[in-house]
Structures are given as C-alpha cells and as structure tokens.
C-alpha cells in the first residue's frame, strides 16, 4: 500500500483489503510457508499449497475484470491497472526480417562482441583480479570501421576500466574510504574495502536504461506485498531512481521491466495444453520489440541487459529467449544452480515477504540471552527437504520447535524473536523469505538447502552470520546448533544485525539497502564483461 502507492489503483478493493488484513496475518502465522504459486489462485491462495499431489505446479489464473471480492483483494496487492491490460500488443517480426537477421546473427556468433573475462570480477575472491588493460580498450579507437555514434560505448568502457582499477587498488591497498552513512567492515564481507570502493564507484557512474516499451500490468508493474514483493518494489524503484538514465547512449546496462509474477498472474492458463508457450511468448515478443527498435540488444547479444524475477518460474520463463538465458544478467530469487543459475553472470537476491507492504513492525528482537528456544521452524510440507525435517523433529524436542502449523494463539514473529536459530529449509524452490525474516528479528538463519546461491554472496560471506547444515545432517541438527558456543553465537547474531541493512526495503531507497545491493550485484556483473566489436554496426 505504501511503497508503491503512487501507482496503486485505488478501488473498492482497498476497503476490502483492510477487512481481510487480519485474516491474512492470521493465515500467515498458521499456514506459513505455503507455496508461492498459490498466491493468486482463487480459493486456495492462502491455505493450500500450489502443488497438487502429483507434484505438478498448479496456479489458477484469476479473472481480471470484475472478479469476486477476495480476488480484488489479492489484486490490490498487485497494483495492476484494471482498465489498461494489453498483452502481446507488439507487431510480429516478418519472416523475411528473420532470415536476414539470421545471417547477421551467425556473424556475431563467429566473432563475439562480448568478452567474458576469464576471472570474474567477484569481490568474494581474495586474490587480486586480472583486469583488462586500458590499452586494450584504446585499441578500439584505432579501428577505422567504427562509426561515430558508438564512441559512446568506448567512453563507457574506459570509465568501467577505471572503476575496475580503483576497486582492485582498494582491495589491495588497505585504504578505507570515509563514508558518513556506513563503512562496510568486518568478516561478513569477503573484502569490505573492495566492496566499499565498488559501491562508491557505482554511485559515481552507474547508469541504467529502462525500456519504456510495454504496457502495465505485465510491464512496469509488479506485486509489492506478497512473497514476490521484491519484483514490484524493484521495478518501481528502478524507474524512479537517479541511477536511471533516459539516454541509452549513456547506459551501462539495460533493464527489461517485466514482471514474471505478472506474466504468471495474467497469462498462465492451467487448462491450456502447452501452458508455458504463451508466457514465454510474451518475453520473446518483448525482446523482439526492443531488439528491433534499438541497436543495444544486438550489440551485445543481450549481455548488458538484465531482467529480475522473484517468481519460482522466473528461471524457466527466461529460457524463452536463448540469448537471454545464455548471455543476459538474470536477477533471481530462485537462484538454483541446477536450473542454470550461474553465480558469475546471474544475481541472487532475497525473497522478502512484506505483509503490509512495508517493514513496519518486522524489525528487531531481544538479545541472545532472552531467546529461550534453540531452533524454530513452522511451515508447509513442500519440496524434498521439509518432510525430512518434520520427520525428525516435529514434536520431538522442546528445544527444536518444528511445526507444520503453529498452535492457536502463537505468533509466528513472536517465535522468531524467541528463538536463537531460525531454520530455513528449501521448499519447492531454493529461496525462502525466512532468511530475511530471521535477519530482521535478530535470529541466526540456518540454511538447509541444496544448489542454492545465497543473496549477495558476491559480497557477503554468509558463513560469518548464518549456519549451513547439509540436508543429510538434519538428524544431527540439535547437536550441531547446541555445539555452537555462546561466544560464537553472539558473534553470529551481532554480524547478522549488522548486515540487516542490506536486506531492508525502503520506500525511498537508502544507501546500502536491498535495492542498492541488487543494483550493486548487477554493476559487478557488468564489470565482468567488456563490450567491443563495434565494427559490426
Ligand atoms: C491506469 O490506466 C489509465 C488509463 O490508461 C491511466 O490514466 C492511469 O494513470 C493508470 N493508472 C495507473 C495507476 O497506472
Ligand atoms: C495434478 O496435476 C496433474 C497435471 O496438471 C494432473 O494430471 C493430476 O491429475 C493432478 N492431480 C491431482 C490430484 O489433482
Ligand atoms: C600500454 O601500451 C604501451 C605501449 O604499447 C605500453 O608501453 C604499456 O605498458 C601499456 N600499458 C598497459 C597497462 O598495458
Ligand atoms: C590512502 O589514502 C590517502 C588519502 O586518500 C592517500 O594519501 C594515501 O596515499 C593512500 N594510501 C595508500 C596506501 O593508497
Ligand atoms: C537485431 O537483430 C534482429 C534479428 O537478429 C533484427 O530483426 C533486428 O532488426 C536487429 N535490430 C536492429 C536495430 O538492427
Ligand atoms: C567468487 O569467487 C569465489 C572464489 O574465487 C567463488 O567461490 C565464488 O563462488 C564466486 N562467487 C561468484 C558470485 O561468482
Ligand atoms: C533445483 O533445480 C533442480 C533442477 O530443476 C530441481 O530438481 C530441484 O528440485 C530444484 N531445487 C529446489 C529446491 O527447487
């Protein structure tokens, strides 16, 4: 309601929403951990899981116009514009054009226009980085074939080269820059000084072009409260931030302002035999549109473009355009390396549930000595890991409180605040809002996950403020957690409180908050590539 209010549609559903808020909160406490896929289904969106018994993902498309009351209430979260729904409105590309471009594309493939640096620019690496020499970049200007309009790219690359050099120097020199807001320091950072310098370089020069094409609600919009809240928040903040440039010639990266949650919400049809196709077509049409209208997609074959999705289906839908899947930066909550997530090119960002649309009431918790429960989990029994957890720990031990449903009258957030460790097992997807809930409430997150790249692990060393328990050690959970000394626990907890700022969602983004951290991860990925090959254009 607050964060995206400037683009919320105001309707009767608003009133209804306030009526159902207590209902939602209660449901969250008791049925926490239900599948995200159920969020938009008509009758089961709060209580039932999004997977049917056969394990197939199901979601129900909500009637868009004149839906029933509670559908309106769901849509309220969605901020969609009822009167303005245009899907697939792009003119199709002709077959002839396709053929022509086929040849061009071949050429591009033979001589790639992007250099992926051998060693990725990754602040987690403690070794100094091999940086491309600026000479290399200058070589371009001696190319006779370069057309004048692309000297802008050349300038951008020179600036990026300087930023790389500055970060490299900061990583080695041990000179910490002053910062009135916050100076990153401590073992939570792989290299605090390199991160700080990189962050400042980003603030100094990073520019993002947001394509204006596309209509709401699929484009330029997204949910702001649900488990997918980061989609709507990021899109809104990206469109209003000072990092946005209206001049594509000045942009380091190009944002595709599409919401996968919106695609699933408005286009998914469970009755259709091939339900992926229309959803994927939407993304394909959009890439065709912007690559036909502007030279930038073809220039890099997508490598300086990024999309963002918090939805479970983000990775699958991103496969619609092979070049996007292969080359572009995909910022995903569902950062599952088994589903093609590449840590050096893609960005892992946190899933954050904002029941009221803001962090109000979510932050803070008592000191370690006033937390009486060793470990806590409550949530649905979905995915492969949770059944194992429940099997070993449900109602087994008062110190390890593992529940499917919390007893009546017990507050979910109250339990987080009373617990030393908060268990974060994967469900259907690797990500879960629990990690951030734990950090918000001063509980130390315990990651029980396979194939997951935790958010911002390009900058943050999760081992310094969380505990990772391999799935096969679930039976030893109590032994492992009880074996952590009070001193070590206090350290973990204190560091968690310190990194909390990187996970905070602000209506107007603040420095070092989650919006800026996502942007910073994208900035780092852009530093990993060098664009050249101007002679093709
Ligand atoms: C909704 O669409 C109408 C008509 O296109 C437009 O005037 C209005 O500004 C839109 N509202 C929002 C919140 O986008
Ligand atoms: C689950 O979904 C699959 C595929 O959509 C369907 O074949 C199956 O009958 C469903 N099972 C139940 C129990 O609804
Ligand atoms: C740049 O090129 C000059 C002349 O070719 C060479 O002397 C110098 O070492 C090069 N600098 C770097 C950083 O590679
Ligand atoms: C550290 O920074 C100061 C002031 O910016 C500068 O004078 C000094 O040379 C730097 N030291 C190193 C080792 O880079
Ligand atoms: C980019 O390539 C596509 C096909 O590969 C082609 O249809 C399109 O016209 C090209 N865009 C520009 C701006 O040249
Ligand atoms: C960064 O590098 C380290 C070690 O070189 C590696 O373990 C880690 O996975 C890399 N992270 C990313 C995000 O590329
Ligand atoms: C990660 O991806 C693999 C491959 O698609 C899948 O089998 C696995 O279930 C995923 N993990 C989670 C927790 O979703």
From TrEMBL:
Assigned keywords, A-Z? Glycosyltransferase, Golgi apparatus, Membrane, Signal-anchor, Transferase, Transmembrane, Transmembrane helix
Q: Indicate the transmembrane segments per the record.
A: 16-33
Molecular function in Gene Ontology: glycosyltransferase activity
Where is it predominantly found?
A: Golgi
An example Pfam family from this entry, by short name, is Exostosin_GT47
Q: Where is the Exostosin GT47 domain?
A: 203-482
The record's listing under InterPro entries reads:
Exostosin (IPR004263), Exostosin_GT47 (IPR040911)
| Residue numbers spanned by region Disordered | 97-116
Q: Where in the cell is it found?
A: Golgi apparatus membrane
Q: Where is the composition biased (Basic and acidic residues)?
A: 106-116
**Similarity field:** Belongs to the glycosyltransferase 47 family.
Q: What is this protein called?
A: Glycosyltransferase
């Amino acid at each position: 309601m607050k964060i995206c209010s400037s683009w919320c549609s105001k309707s009767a559903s608003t009133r209804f929403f306030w009526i159902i808020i207590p209902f939602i909160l209660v449901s969250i406490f008791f049925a926490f951990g239900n599948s995200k896929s159920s969020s938009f289904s008509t009758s089961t969106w709060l209580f039932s899981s999004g997977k049917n018994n056969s394990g197939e993902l199901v979601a129900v498309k909500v009637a868009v116009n004149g839906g029933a009351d509670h559908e309106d209430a769901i849509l309220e979260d969605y901020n969609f514009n009822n009167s303005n729904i245009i899907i697939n409105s792009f003119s199709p590309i002709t077959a002839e054009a396709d053929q022509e471009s086929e040849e061009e594309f071949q050429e591009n493939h033979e001589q790639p226009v992007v250099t992926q640096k051998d060693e990725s620019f990754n602040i987690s690496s403690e070794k100094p980085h091999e940086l491309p020499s600026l000479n290399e970049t200058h070589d371009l200007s001696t190319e006779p074939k370069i057309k004048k309009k692309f000297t802008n790219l050349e300038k951008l690359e020179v600036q990026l080269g300087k930023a790389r050099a500055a970060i490299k120097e900061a990583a080695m020199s041990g000179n910490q820059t002053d910062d009135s807001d916050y100076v990153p320091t401590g073992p939570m950072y792989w290299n605090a000084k390199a991160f700080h310098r990189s962050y400042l370089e980003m603030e100094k020069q990073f520019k993002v072009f947001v394509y204006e094409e596309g209509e709401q609600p699929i484009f330029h919009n997204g949910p702001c409260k649900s488990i997918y809240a980061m989609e709507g928040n990021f899109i809104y903040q990206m469109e209003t931030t000072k990092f946005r440039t209206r001049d594509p010639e000045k942009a380091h990266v190009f944002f595709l302002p599409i919401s996968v949650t919106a695609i699933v919400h408005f286009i998914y049809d469970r009755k259709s035999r091939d339900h992926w196709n229309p959803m994927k077509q939407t993304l394909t049409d959009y890439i065709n549109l912007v690559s036909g209208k502007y030279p930038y997609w073809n220039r890099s074959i997508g490598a300086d473009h990024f999309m963002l999705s918090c939805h479970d289906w983000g990775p699958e839908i991103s496969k619609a355009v092979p070049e996007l899947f292969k080359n572009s930066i995909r910022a995903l909550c569902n950062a599952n390396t088994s589903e093609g997530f590449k840590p050096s090119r893609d960005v892992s960002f946190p899933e954050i549930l904002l029941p009221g649309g803001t962090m109000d009431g979510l932050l803070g918790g008592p000191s370690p000595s006033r937390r009486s429960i060793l470990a806590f989990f409550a949530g649905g029994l979905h995915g492969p890991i949770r059944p194992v957890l429940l099997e070993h720990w449900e109602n087994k031990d008062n110190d390890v409180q593992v529940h499917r449903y919390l007893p009546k009258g017990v507050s979910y957030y109250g339990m987080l605040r009373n617990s030393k460790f908060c268990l974060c097992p994967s469900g259907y997807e690797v990500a879960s809002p629990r990690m951030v809930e734990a950090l918000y409430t001063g509980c130390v997150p315990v990651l029980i996950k396979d194939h997951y790249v935790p958010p911002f692990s390009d900058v943050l060393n999760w081992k310094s403020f969380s505990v990772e328990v391999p799935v096969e050690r679930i039976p030893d959970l109590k032994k492992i957690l009880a074996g952590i000394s009070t001193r070590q626990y206090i350290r973990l907890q204190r560091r968690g409180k310190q990194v909390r700022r990187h996970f905070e969602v602000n209506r107007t983004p603040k420095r070092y908050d989650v919006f800026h951290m996502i942007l910073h991860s994208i900035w780092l990925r852009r530093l990993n590539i060098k664009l050249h090959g101007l002679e093709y254009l």
